[in-house]
């Protein structure tokens, strides 16, 4: 596709430049011809001015060999000059030899002819302008402006009058001065200023030329004599005067007058461009920036109508009675504990209302914090959370759940300005804060997220909210998901967008991973992908994926060197506890490795668990997941395990959550997106044109397969020989080659590769690289196989 587009684009005239495809010798010949021609024209034109009257009569006798013209170049000179000067542009025609000479020199010296077209355009504009101007001012002498100048003047004056033509000439002159000579009012002012300074310094110089005259009494007198030359250092303008010597042998050093009128010239340093940059610029000029979305150029982002309102059209309803009631209870409860309140303010959120209290002077904050349970009891409400003090404010917050919680629909957060205008790499609209603001974060900055909460508290909805946000904002070329769903039901809907948004291992049938053993392979494959990406970043000399992709789009990275546009990869594991219980270290190690290193290369992990215990969320996992989300949990300990703070045990469930990215904990109401909505979105995307396959991750074969396997010759696959021939001919030991050439499944191809290794035809497994082929040609292969059977 990309090629098609590039072909249809025609290069612009400036790109074409003056790119005559001539050999070097031809350029020299053509260059010399133009130079000679320009000299001939110059002499013809010059002498035409003195001889035109005499020569005019013989123009008709050009063919007559005996007729002679007075022009320096005889009849040729007379005719050409008559054409250019009399019938053409008059005196301005002298520019033609100049332009020809420049062109000739460019060709002769083999200079880069890029600017030549510009010179001709400006030259011709100048010729026309001079011709008309001379026609205008020297109306009486038509030879100065030539016939064209005269006629054009006449023509213009018929329409605009003399003043009109004059104004037009002034305007065109301005255009020429501004465009060609960078004329500007400041430039003119600077010129006059420097002239003035020059005059001033000359004047000073002439006035202050000191000369010594020695009097009889040995004293030193100084007098001024204007015309005595004094050496002046032109750079510093300091007078170079030797120290005077009095008779008494006293060295008298004349104080040198400091001249502060030194002009500082600042020379602009032009950045040196590397050759690749120049090439890239040319490619971008010719074909435009690389567009990763081009392959699915007609892709339509899901529209907002696919999402439901969930009855939350009117926003939050304020129940005045409830507010008054809660306020009175808070005030009286605190009064019982002898805590006076100076001021109280309520902020109503979708699920909870925040009462901000300014206690009276002298009340200790810790006292209120300790009374948390008592206050909760007297307010008879679940999910009271006390924030003492609210960070950044001098107040204490008491969060009280609303009697009727409002559902925050995914539709409302997706449609919000904040999300729509978010300039983030991977924007996620989580929901709304307590003050009813839409909460949008960048997954790329997090860079990995841990999500935990007791069962049924909104984790799956939270994951769907994350995925939906990305689906609404990102093109299939920009992000790929790897979905791990041991529960087998939660993420199945995303199957429909496999060929748009999912990534998988080359051998797997389903893109959504439900089998724990496959997770290990996927994680290891992701580690290989990570290493490969780091290698690419190193080659490109950039620090992260964003810079890499910018450079790739600007065509500064050559795809022939293995460079390609890198999509973000988001790995989502829905039930991490299950995984760590069955696979333990085998998953923990690659996850920790990815979490530690993958941020720069655009691989981001989201792991969710309903069992937030320390053996699931281990220290090593926790240390690498700074962004954490806690839905409601059953104990304070669980809350601490997730957030390193309590509070998650006091949430009210149904998407009520706490979010932290390191320090502050923010209470949010997660946006609600129901399964039918996700189904509609995936259906909408899935029905569009897709890539031929899901995004393929690098091949990873487990450690136990491969090396050291001793296959019996009799057990060999029936396609063994064909496969061996394919591999040896291509000299490339990869399972996917066998798959493609012999149309085999991945598993069978993998088995054959193992057999080839056992037979000594290919080398051992080398990670993401193809195996080494140990047999150089088909003949050697024949010999090897024959020897085996002997
Ligand atoms: N943000 C939300 N707003 C309103 N209701 C919600 C929200 N999130 C979840 N719920 C309600 O809670 C129910 C359970 O949510 P969800 O399936 O996400 O829980 P879960 O934590 O994934 O449970 P499990 O671990 O058993 O899969 C939903 O069916 C829905 O009714």
From TrEMBL:
Domain FtsK positions: 436-640
Keywords carried by this UniProt record: ATP-binding, Cell cycle, Cell division, Cell membrane, Chromosome partition, DNA-binding, Membrane, Nucleotide-binding, Transmembrane, Transmembrane helix
Organism, scientific name: Flagellimonas pacifica
Compartment(s) where it occurs, according to its Swiss-Prot or TrEMBL record: Cell membrane
Xref: PROSITE patterns: FTSK (PS50901)
Family: Belongs to the FtsK/SpoIIIE/SftA family.
Pfam families: FtsK_4TM, FtsK_alpha, FtsK_gamma, FtsK_SpoIIIE
Molecular function terms from GO: ATP binding; DNA binding
InterPro entries: FtsK/SpoIIIE/SftA (IPR050206), FtsK_4TM (IPR025199), FtsK_alpha (IPR041027), FtsK_dom (IPR002543), Ftsk_gamma (IPR018541), P-loop_NTPase (IPR027417), WH-like_DNA-bd_sf (IPR036388), WH_DNA-bd_sf (IPR036390)
Topology in membrane: Multi-pass membrane protein
Protein name listed in UniProt: DNA segregation ATPase FtsK/SpoIIIE, S-DNA-T family
GO biological process: one example: chromosome segregation
Source species, domain of life: Bacteria
Native organism taxonomy: Bacteria, Pseudomonadati, Bacteroidota, Flavobacteriia, Flavobacteriales
GO cellular component term, pick one: plasma membrane
Binding site for ATP: 453-460
Major location (coarse): membrane
Transmembrane portions of the chain: 28-50, 89-109, 121-139, 159-181
Gene3D superfamilies per UniProt: 3.30.980.40, P-loop containing nucleotide triphosphate hydrolases, Winged helix-like DNA-binding domain superfamily/Winged helix DNA-binding domain
């Amino acid at each position: 596709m990309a090629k098609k587009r590039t072909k249809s684009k025609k290069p612009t005239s400036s790109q074409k430049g003056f790119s005559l495809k001539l050999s070097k010798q031809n350029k020299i010949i053509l260059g010399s011809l133009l130079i000679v021609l320009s000299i001939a024209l110059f002499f013809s034109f010059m002498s035409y001015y003195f001889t035109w009257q005499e020569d005019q009569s013989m123009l008709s006798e050009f063919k007559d060999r005996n007729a002679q013209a007075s022009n320096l170049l005889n009849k040729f000179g007379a005719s050409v000059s008559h054409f250019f000067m009399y019938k053409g542009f008059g005196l301005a025609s002298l520019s033609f030899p100049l332009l020809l000479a420049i062109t000739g020199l460019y060709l002769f010296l083999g200079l880069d002819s890029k600017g030549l077209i510009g010179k001709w355009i400006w030259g011709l504009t100048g010729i026309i302008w001079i011709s008309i101007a001379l026609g205008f001012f020297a109306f009486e002498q038509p030879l100065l402006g030539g016939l064209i100048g005269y006629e054009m003047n006449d023509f213009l004056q018929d329409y605009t009058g003399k003043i009109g033509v004059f104004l037009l000439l002034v305007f065109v002159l301005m255009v020429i001065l501004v465009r060609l000579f960078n004329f500007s009012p400041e430039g003119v002012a600077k010129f006059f200023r420097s002239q003035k300074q020059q005059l001033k310094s000359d004047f000073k110089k002439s006035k202050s030329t000191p000369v010594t005259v020695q009097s009889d009494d040995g004293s030193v007198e100084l007098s001024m004599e204007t015309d005595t030359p004094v050496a002046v250092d032109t750079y510093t303008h300091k007078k170079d005067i030797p120290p005077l010597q009095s008779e008494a042998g006293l060295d008298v050093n004349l104080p040198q007058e400091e001249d502060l009128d030194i002009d500082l010239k600042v020379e602009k340093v032009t950045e040196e461009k590397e050759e690749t940059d120049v090439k890239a610029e040319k490619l971008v000029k010719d074909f435009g920036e690389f567009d990763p979305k081009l392959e699915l150029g007609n892709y339509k982002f899901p529209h907002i109508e696919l999402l439901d309102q969930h009855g939350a059209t009117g926003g939050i309803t304020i129940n005045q009675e409830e507010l008054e009631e809660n306020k009175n209870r808070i005030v009286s409860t605190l009064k019982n504990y002898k805590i006076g309140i100076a001021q109280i303010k309520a902020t109503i959120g979708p699920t909870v209302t925040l009462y901000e209290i300014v206690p009276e002077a002298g009340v200790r904050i810790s006292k209120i914090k300790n009374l948390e349970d008592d206050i909760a009891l007297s307010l008879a409400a679940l999910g009271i959370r006390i924030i003492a003090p609210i960070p950044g404010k001098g107040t204490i917050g008491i969060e009280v759940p609303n009697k009727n919680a409002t559902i925050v629909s995914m539709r409302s957060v997706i449609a919000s300005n904040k999300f729509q205008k978010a300039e983030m790499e991977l924007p996620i609209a989580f929901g709304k804060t307590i003050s009813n603001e839409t909460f949008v974060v960048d997954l790329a900055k997090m860079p990995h997220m841990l999500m935990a909460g007791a069962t049924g508290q909104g984790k799956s909805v939270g994951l769907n909210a994350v995925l939906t946000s990305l689906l609404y904002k990102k093109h299939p070329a920009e992000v790929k998901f790897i979905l791990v769903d041991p529960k087998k039901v939660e993420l199945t809907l995303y199957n429909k967008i496999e060929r748009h948004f999912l990534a998988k291992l080359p051998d797997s049938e389903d893109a959504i991973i439900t089998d724990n053993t496959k997770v290990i392979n996927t994680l290891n494959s992701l580690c290989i992908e990570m290493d490969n990406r780091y290698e690419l970043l190193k080659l490109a000399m950039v620090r992260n994926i964003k810079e890499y992709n910018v450079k790739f789009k600007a065509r500064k990275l050559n795809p022939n060197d293995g460079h390609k546009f890198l999509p973000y990869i988001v790995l989502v594991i829905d039930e991490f506890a299950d995984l760590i219980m069955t696979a333990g270290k085998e998953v923990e190690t690659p996850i920790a490795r990815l979490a530690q290193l993958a941020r720069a290369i655009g691989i981001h992990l989201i792991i969710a668990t309903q069992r937030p215990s320390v053996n699931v969320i281990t220290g090593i996992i926790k240390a690498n997941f700074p962004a954490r989300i806690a839905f409601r949990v059953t104990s304070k300990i669980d809350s601490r395990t997730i957030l390193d703070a309590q509070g998650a045990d006091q949430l009210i469930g149904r998407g009520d959550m706490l979010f932290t990215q390191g320090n502050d904990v923010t209470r949010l109401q997660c946006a609600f997106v129901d399964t039918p909505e996700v189904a509609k979105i995936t259906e909408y995307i899935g029905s569009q044109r897709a890539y031929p396959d899901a995004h393929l991750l690098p091949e990873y074969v487990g450690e136990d397969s491969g090396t050291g396997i001793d296959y019996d010759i009799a057990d060999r696959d029936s396609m063994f020989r064909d496969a061996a021939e394919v591999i040896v001919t291509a000299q490339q030991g990869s399972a996917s080659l066998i798959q493609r050439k012999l149309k085999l499944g991945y598993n069978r191809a993998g088995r054959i590769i193992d057999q080839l290794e056992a037979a000594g035809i290919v080398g051992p497994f080398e990670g993401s690289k193809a195996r080494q082929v140990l047999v150089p040609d088909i003949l050697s292969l024949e010999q090897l196989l024959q020897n085996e059977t002997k």
